[in-house]
């Protein structure tokens, strides 16, 4: 067993034992109740999942294994000459619950590089799709095509014992993360760069090599990729992409099947696709106003019109957050440093000034503040990636770090198949009848 795997076994098995004992002793303790609004409103804030890798606070934002984003930008190892953290260092933290040093981070970079070969049939499968296929659809199909490589599926067919599930899952997770940048870069270059591809550079870190294969060689774009792939990685367990990956994995579907399912959720406009929608909305605003640099008054009027048309203002609002997303702030910091005078970035900042009071004034939007997707597109356009339909694929490559680390933990902790109870509206109506009769007696 290689050292990385041995270490995961040593970290996860004691917790698995503790959880077993805790559930045995305290299994009947209640964590809360579910209201009828929650039942019809997407189960918001209902505590029904355990995800070890991160925890979201409505006001403070995400903490990865206890660390905020500003803390991680300080504490995680960075590449030579770059101030942004290395995403493979974040993966180490998520997986082992321990901040890595330079050596541990290098071992992750090395491990990803060694496992990165993608079988030819995956490229062939992508090539069968029309060029007009949305990049997220190409990405999801490519991940499905790679399922032929699943060590977990193979081991299950051969009759692996329950207690060892985590072991082939660990291999699937490392193999899949290692291959994703190559697949994503292939989709980008095929769709937008005349099918001219760029081979990997094994001397680079995971994110810099991804930038290189996409065709971006500047120091700044590589820094942006490191930041981007770090901050999009995880957002606790209840968001659509994380929950879907976990749910599908709970049927003992392997990492490829589970992650592809999660990516289909990320591709929805209320979730990850919002990053492309933000830029489309800004471009549309500039077109409609025939003004590439609209004033704050014009932006405010455009936001009001968007709401009047019954559409969402993309990049604003959140199911859990109630303040500005620290992932937005991290990107704004980056922009202040590298491109404070960029026109599009300034539009994003002006939207930030005028949108919250307008959204708040509707009286129904619970969070009028920007989320992660409000800023990312403007930075990507600034550094030369203007093909916004591709943006959610970048999000997906990053999200793999969080949801796949969690999938390792799911199998190591012996998490069971998910099967919540559903009811019909007739059942709810009868329930209300019974309750109200009781109260009025
Ligand atoms: N623009 C217009 N209306 C909005 C809104 C926005 N940005 N955010 C919320 N609302 C509306 C909802 O559509 C809902 O309207 P109805 O009552 O008419 O159905 C009402 O306000 C209440 O919604 P909420 O409780 O505040 O928000 P939800 O938890 O239901 O939804 C989210 C959260 C993110 C889907 C929603 O805020 C939204 O649609 N935002 C725009 C899309 C977006 O940026 N998504 C990315 C989120 C981050 C990510 O996952 O990547």
Question: How is this structure best described in words?
Answer:
Helix content is 60%, strand content 2%. By secondary structure, the chain is mainly α. The protein folds into 2 domains: 1-23 and 49-271 and 387-436, Citrate Synthase, domain 1 (Orthogonal Bundle); 274-386, Orthogonal Bundle (Cytochrome p450-Terp, domain 2), CATH 1.10.230. It binds carboxymethyldethia coenzyme *A. Carboxymethyldethia coenzyme *A is lined by residues 44, 239, 270-272, 274, 307, 312-319, 364-367, 371-373.
Distinctive features:
single chain, 441 residues, mainly alpha, Citrate Synthase, domain 1, Cytochrome p450-Terp, domain 2, 2 domains, 3-stranded antiparallel β-sheet, 20 helices, binds carboxymethyldethia coenzyme *A
Q: In the CATH hierarchy, what is the class of the largest domain?
A: Mainly Alpha
Percent helix: 55-70%
Unreliable stretches covering 5 or more consecutive residues: none
Distance between the termini: 67 Å
Task: Report the count of strand segments.
Answer: 3
Assign an overall shape. Answer: globular
Task: Tell me what the CATH architecture of the largest domain is.
Answer: Orthogonal Bundle
Q: The CATH topology of the largest domain is what?
A: Citrate Synthase, domain 1
Mean pLDDT: 97
Radius of gyration: 23 Å
Bound molecules: carboxymethyldethia coenzyme *A
Structural class: mainly alpha
Helix run count: 20
When the domains are counted, the total is 2
Give the SSE string.
HHEEEHHHHHHHHHHHHHHHHHH
- What do we call the CATH homologous superfamily of the largest domain? Citrate Synthase, domain 1
């Amino acid at each position: 067993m290689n050292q990385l795997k041995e270490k995961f076994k040593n970290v996860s098995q004691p917790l698995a034992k503790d959880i077993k004992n805790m559930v045995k002793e305290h299994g009947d303790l209640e964590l809360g109740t579910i209201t009828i609004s929650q039942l019809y409103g997407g189960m918001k804030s209902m505590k029904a999942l355990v995800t070890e890798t991160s925890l979201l606070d409505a006001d403070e934002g995400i903490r990865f294994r206890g660390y905020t984003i500003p803390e991680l930008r300080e504490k995680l190892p960075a590449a030579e000459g770059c101030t942004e953290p290395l995403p493979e260092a974040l993966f180490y933290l998520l997986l082992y619950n321990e901040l890595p040093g330079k050596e541990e981070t290098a071992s992750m970079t090395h491990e990803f590089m060694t496992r990165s070969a993608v079988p030819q049939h995956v490229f062939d499968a992508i090539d069968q799709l029309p060029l007009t296929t949305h990049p997220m659809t190409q990405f999801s199909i490519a991940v499905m095509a790679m399922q032929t490589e699943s060590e977990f599926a193979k081991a299950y067919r051969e009759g692996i014992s329950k207690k060892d599930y985590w072991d082939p899952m660990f291999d699937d997770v490392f193999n899949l993360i290692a291959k994703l940048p190559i697949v994503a870069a292939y989709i980008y270059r095929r769709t937008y760069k005349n099918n001219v591809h760029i081979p990997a550079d094994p001397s680079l870190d995971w994110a810099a090599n991804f930038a290189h294969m996409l065709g971006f060689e500047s120091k700044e774009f590589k820094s942006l990729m490191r930041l981007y792939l770090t901050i999009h990685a995880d957002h606790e367990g209840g968001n659509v992409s994380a929950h879907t990956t976990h749910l599908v994995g709970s049927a003992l579907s392997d990492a490829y099947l589970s992650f592809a399912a999660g990516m289909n959720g990320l591709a929805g406009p209320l979730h990850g696709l919002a990053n492309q929608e933000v830029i489309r909305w800004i471009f549309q605003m500039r077109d409609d106003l025939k003004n590439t640099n609209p004033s704050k008054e014009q932006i405010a009027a455009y936001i009001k019109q968007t709401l009047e048309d019954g559409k969402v203002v993309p990049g604003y609002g959140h199911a859990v957050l109630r303040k500005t997303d620290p992932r937005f702030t991290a990107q704004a910091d980056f922009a202040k440093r590298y491109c404070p005078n960029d026109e599009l970035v300034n539009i994003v900042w002006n939207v930030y000034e005028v949108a919250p009071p307008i959204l708040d004034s509707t009286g129904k939007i619970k969070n009028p503040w920007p989320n992660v997707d409000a800023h990312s597109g403007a930075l990507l356009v600034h550094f030369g990636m203007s093909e916004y339909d591709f943006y959610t694929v970048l999000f997906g490559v990053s999200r793999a770090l969080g949801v796949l680390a969690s999938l390792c933990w799911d199998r190591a902790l012996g998490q069971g198949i998910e099967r919540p109870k559903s009811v019909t509206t007739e059942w709810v109506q009868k329930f209300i009848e019974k309750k109200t009769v009781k109260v009025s007696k």
